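A quick word before the example. In earlier lectures we treated sequence and structure as two separate objects. From today on, think of them as two lines of the same record. Here is Histidine kinase-, DNA gyrase B-, and HSP90-like ATPase written that way.
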Amino acid sequence: MDTYFAPAEKAKGEELTAEIEMVCHNPVLEGLLCSVSGLLAVLNEHRQLVAFNDTFMQMLGIHDAQQAFGLRLGEALECIHAHDEPAGCGTTKFCPTCGAAIAIVSSLTQDRPVERMCALSANRDGQSVDIALLVRSYPIRIAGKIFLLIFLQDISRQQQRAALERAFFHDVNNMLSALVWASELLVQDNPSVLAQNIYEASLRLHSEVAIQRCLSQGDSSSYQPVRRPVNLKQILGELYSFFASHPAANKKKIEFPEDDPNISINTDLSLLLHVLFNMVINALEATGEAGTVKIWCEHKGGQMSFNVWNAEGIPQEISHRIFQRNFSTKEQAGRGIGTFSMKLFGEKILGGRVTFSTSQEEGTVFTFSLPFEEFSSPL
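And the structure line, produced from the sequence above:
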């Protein structure tokens, strides 16, 4: 038989039945098929299904396992190219670039685990549906014969989300770059307080999108900080303006320091404010109605420290995981990023240190400290 990639031969009749019986009566594989909650199948050396778990059978939409025994993976998953050649899955001109086919054949020929991502177009109710699968093929031997454990993970949503995020950040970044350029020209041609505010706001928005992209990717190296001297009074003024109408501050009081040292900080303002905003939001969310949150700064011991206090103590079992990504005491999806981002940006990029102290008696203080060398001399 002709093939574009993998061998075309299949096991049939008594040979296939014997392999199915061999696998189904193996206590180790039987236990594995019953215990693994994800998608798991077993293939013979001809790449045919000889066993699979209930989750795999549910995905196929069948109630009788006999319907799938002897099929190859692409045939069972209803790949739109599986029947392009007489010998089926693995032999068509599309198979040399199929992640599942590559993982399976490589695992068989090299006798080692192989993992690939498979972009599958499947026939579902007469329509072609794109599915992304992570396929891991693991060779085993039973009574001298080679079989493959096939672990499948549907990553379609993750792939779609990643593609949408890339497109979104790419398009928004292009638009913001144009906005920054136009606002800069506006300041040059028609200098005014309003033009300057528009320019600075566009810069801040551009930086915030870069911050969110960095968070989405979980890679701090993708953000390039822009350091410039920023007066401490300006930083506190930004905090005051931001929380003047913030929902988390509703019916709560924020106390700012009355006297600030006249110091300019050489830092990335957007990142610094991102850290401080999250510190204050966390404090406000932990504070009840009519409660107070306090903000103050300290410049001593070669450190400039920004401190945020609230009256609630953090339970010990929670305090150990405060900075862990995705950990949150809130039920809503998407929580657990604020404190993680404080560490990510405050420490890995700005070179500072984010810490907290807590007790039921004294409340909780989050502190962001930057080393003295990050600062210029007092003005």
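Notice the following. Residues 331-335, 374-379 have pLDDT under 50 and may be disordered. We will return to this example when we discuss secondary structure assignment.
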